[in-house]
Amino acid sequence: MIAYYIDHFSPFIFEFGNGIGLRWYGTAYVAAFLLGFWMLRWFSRAGYSELAEDKVGDFIAATALWGVLLGGRLGYALFYDLPNILHDPLQFFRVWEGGMASHGGILGIAIFTYWYARKHKISWMGLGDNLVVAAPLGIFFGRCANFVNGELFGRPATVPWAMQFPKEIYSDSSLAQRAIDACSQLDPVLSTREAIVAASQTSEPVRAALAEILTPRHPSQLYEAGMEGLLLFVLLWLLRTKTRVAEGVTTGAFFILYAVVRIVGEQFREPDEGIAFTLGLTRGQFLSLFMILFGAVLVGISVRRNHPSVRPSPAATPVAGKQS
User: Fold this and answer.
1) Tell me: the pLDDT tens digits for 269-307?
2) What residues make up the domain containing 182?
3) CA distance 70 to 63
4) Under the phi-then-psi rule, with left for phi > 0, alpha for psi from -120 to 50, and beta for the rest, what region is 323?
5) 202 occurs within a structural domain
6) How many other C-beta atoms can be found within 10 angstroms of the C-beta atom of residue 239?
7) Element (DSSP H or E) covering residue 178
8) Which one of 43, 187, 221, 283 is most buried, counting C-beta atoms within 10 A?
9) Are 154 and 223 a contacting pair, CB within 8 Å?
10) Cβ contacts of 207 within 8 Å, gap of 6 or more
11) pTM, two decimal places
């Protein structure tokens, strides 16, 4: 019998007590914004961007607030958690508990950057062509944070690299009762799901008890980190820097490619509890169809316009090792 790894990372990098501390989830967003800032500044220096280098910091900060955070949170509330938000509106503001929708974040960024480009009289498609290259790295960090938090886990699996996730007991009442029966024998305090999940992070006996109960599953968060993050970054980087496609094609390609890899990744991910399938598709897959349509329209318009994308002259290309 395979001894499957049990995901037992703490959500905190360090904790001061009573749920206060530096969380991996928030740190992932900070890392994404910092890397996005560095990449957009590089594009500006290299001659790939209309956005001036001294404007990059303000742009990234505003995009993070109005696009990623507000868009991602609104997307989650509308697409995945509307009944709970309506029951407890203050839950919308408890972002430290997780609950961000990548589709909502992408839509929020698209709307905000369109407004920003119009206000500053620069090309929205040109701005997007650079931003979408950096975006997959932010998605990569977010998926890694999902893995550390043990959330958005995969479907049941028998592959050797399958893992067990203690938070599975939140979505299955009969499984939760089995876990409570087993763990309360180790310590009477372990009589709730929350107590068991917290104890699994530090207690080997608790993990051993859960190993007999939890379902081995695909670590789909890592699959998605690789496909939506690293693979998509490489493809878009090559398209932006190694080809001479029309302005807007890279942006359209992002919408199409992200949607495709999201649809593939959702085949390994446990469907969201309480959310019905649409046309046999999960909510994430269904929403991705609209992204493919939007991306295809964007590519079609870009090719028809055939407006050259902003690119550096050979003399303007930065030399590796000489950039701060």
Assistant:
1) 999 876 767 888 998 899 899 999 999 999 999 999 999
2) 166-211
3) 10
4) beta
5) yes
6) 18
7) helix 173-183
8) 221
9) yes
10) 6, 8, 200
11) 0.87
